[in-house]
Amino acid sequence: MTEISVKIAYEAAFIFIREYYIRDGGNSQDIESLLSSMIPGPSGRSSDPAMREFFEDAVGQALKEESSPL
User: Which residues of 9-44 are buried (b: 16+ CB within 10 A; e: fewer)?
Assistant: First the structure.
């Protein structure tokens, strides 16, 4: 498996959720709110600094659980 940076993982998660939202017809206010808080700004960080921190925490948890199947 290819290793990627947290920045690229964040961008991939944003794209994945955005594409899901589009395919679902754009009808979920919850997903729309999530995407709004995740939009990367010019620095590459989200418009909501807490969102990036939550994501980094999730990456840390996933790395700890890497050997466990989903």
Answer: bbeeebeeebeebeeeeeeeeebeebbeebeeeeee
